[in-house]
Write a structure and sequence with these properties.
Blueprint: E1 3-7, H1 11-27, E2 32-37, E3 41-43, H2 48-51, H3 59-62, E4 63-65, E5 78-82, E6 84-89, E7 94-99, E8 102-107, E9 110-113, E10 117-119, H4 132-148, E11 151-155, H5 159-172, E12 177-181, H6 194-203, E13 207-209, E14 214-219, E15 226-230, E16 235-238, E17 240-243, E18 247-249, E19 279-281, H7 293-311, E20 326-330, E21 336-340, E22 343-345, H8 347-355, H9 363-368
Parallel strand pairs: 1-2, 1-9, 2-5, 9-19, 11-12, 11-17, 12-13
Antiparallel strand pairs: 3-4, 6-7, 7-8, 10-18, 14-15, 15-16, 20-21, 21-22
Pfam families: Pyr_redox_2
Keywords: FAD, Flavoprotein, Oxidoreductase
Domain FAD/NAD(P)-binding: 3-290
Length: 372
Amino acid sequence: MPTIVILGGAYVGVRVAHSLLKTTAKTVKDLKIILVSKNSHFYWNMASVRLVIPGQLKEEQYAVPIAKGFEQYPAESFQLIVGSAEGLDTDAKTVSVKVGDAEQSISYDHLVLATGSRYVDSNVPWKANGTYEELAATIKNVQERIAEAKEIVVAGAGATGIELAGEIAFEYGKEKKVTLLSGDSQIFGGDSVASSAANELKKLGVVIKTSARVANTTTLADSGKTEIALENGEKLTADLFLSAMGVVPNSEYIPAKLLNAKKFVEVDETYRVTGAADVWAAGDVVAKPKATFVNGDLQATGLAKNIDLVLKGKTPAAISLMPFDVAAASVGRNRGVGRMGVVKLFSFMVYQMKGKTLGIQKMPGYHNGSSF
């Protein structure tokens, strides 16, 4: 009985699991899929910048139990293990998984690494860093603090930071002062649409400080405010400091020989892990290319097809991604900036594609596999 173990219950892991159960399981006898996820819920983190605004989204719009999405399959074909990957032995073809206080070893015929990445600051919900209970508590905490704060500083001016600052400013207007810090000389990493993003944020009243890289933060005992020390020597204070900087891969359980210097997994053009037979990887944990939802989606689709090919004795194929780079960010709830390759997108186009809903209408189809 071929056993495929998938580590990670976010977009990539869930998509690969559904794809294999819908296609490969029909032709490969007794195929077993084991999905290991630290979070018991499928979390639509794309909407995290909006769900932290009190009253905007209901819980069921952004988080649903993973298990419910797989009830359609025979019980013997699928198993969900809510736990965290702690170790990997590619020679023995086993994964160590911690479930509660106990640790167990799981054998695999093929292994998919889809554990993604996380923000260094674990007190923000831009990604699901821990269990669902921990995530829910973080969301509630940030919602309450945003509601109470009068001065908010957002550090990190990539897409997440831009969208977060825009959401807060759109909701509260002049009630709150929102400052966005960029460590670079421009926001959005100097992308060609950076100036457009800056103009949209300024229309909402967001104060932008560039070349303002955070050195450290300190909670002031007398006021409870946060003091933000910048590398240029400047100091700011805020009622609330929200970090959207410092993304690192969730790869601590992976042997160093399979990682590059920045701890990302190295893969070939088929997304098979370099130096490990029968191990595959996709999504944010992979070294290339830029981590985006679209790239992860295409990687997951191709990876599932390649495992299907290998199980049928065929040669896996190179996975094709987008032929051009895409960058987009919503700014508030009715505007946005973006481009496809070198072609700039109009604001209303970004709004329709992303900003209007942040994709939450797509969540049911990803959760139960009906979109694939």
